[in-house]
Amino acid sequence: MRQLFDVADTTQAEPLCAGAVLLRGFARALEVALLDGVREVVAQAPLRQMITPGGLRMSVAMTNCGSLGWINDRAGYRYAAFDPASGLPWPAIPAAFAALASDAAEPAGFANFNPDVCLISRYEAGTRLSLHQDRDERDYEQPIVSVSLGVGAMFLFGGLKRSDRTARLRLEHGDVVVWGGPARLRCHGVLPLETGSHPLTGAQRFNMTFRKAA
Ligand code: MD6
Ligand code: FE
Fold first, then answer.
1. Atom nearest to 148 CA in ligand 1
2. What is the whole-number distance in angstroms between the Cα of residue 92 and the centre of ligand 2?
3. Which ligand 1 atom is the nearest neighbour of the CA of 119?
4. Strand partners, 188
5. Is there an atom of ligand 1 within 6 Å of 121 CB?
6. Ligand nearest to the backbone CA of 133
7. Residue 3: which pLDDT band, with cuts at 50, 70 and 90?
8. Ligand 2 centre and the CA of 17: distance in Å?
9. For residue 97, is it left (φ>0), alpha (ψ between -120 and 50) or beta?
């Protein structure tokens, strides 16, 4: 699949810390296929604002594709094979998504990354994701691959403890962040999305995080 990624081949991997890299613009060459894929998935498994175990509605709307999907409800955060909204299995991960995820993980030092979940998040102006760890996956040897599309956002990348200092990283359309190894459980979040516009997504930002959950 490498030859598909004109941009990827020329992208410089920017190390963020041990185990984490930023691949600027890595997903740009696939922007149309990726956004078409998002639309297909959302048509089958609509975006929804999930309710946290504490009973709060998340401002960011989410859905999944893959053999598992990340949900959170009063029973807690967990991976489930079925979309609780429809009772149906999650849509399959579109081919363009899967190729991108493994091609991004490789230069970050994670060969043969084969995710079983793609969690899609939609941010609108003012929506945010507070500092958290992605820790509901079984095997922390497997990285997280995060793809940003549309309106740019300020990503917070912290340490292993919530109280650790956070670095601010502006993520633009097409940027990919990979974190794994010693960085796998670093806290991260997204500041409230500013009002903006992108030719392909309007005022929205989409983020896709690829995970190996099972
Ligand atoms: C981002 N997203 O939007 C990073 N984590 O740049 C996440 O860290 C994330 O979108 C858990 C659940 C959904 C997410
Ligand atoms: Fe996360």
1. 6
2. 21
3. 13
4. 132, 157
5. yes
6. 2
7. very low
8. 17
9. alpha
Q: What are the start-end ranges of the H helices in the chain?
A: 6-10, 31-44, 95-105
The confidence score (pLDDT) of residue 5 equals 52
Q: What is the pLDDT of residues 72-127, one digit of tens each?
A: 877 789 999 999 999 999 999 999 999 999 999 998 899 999 999 999 999 999 99
Q: Is the CB of 208 under 6 A from ligand 1?
A: no
CA separation for the pair 153, 83 (Å, rounded)? 28
Q: What is the CATH number of domain 2-28+93-211?
A: 2.60.120.590
pLDDT tens column, 160-199: 999 999 999 999 999 999 999 999 999 999 999 999 999 9
Measuring CA to CA, which residue among 197, 168, 199, 205 is closest to residue 22? 168
Helix H or strand E segment including 121: strand 117-123
- Ligand 2 centroid–CA 152 distance in Å is 17
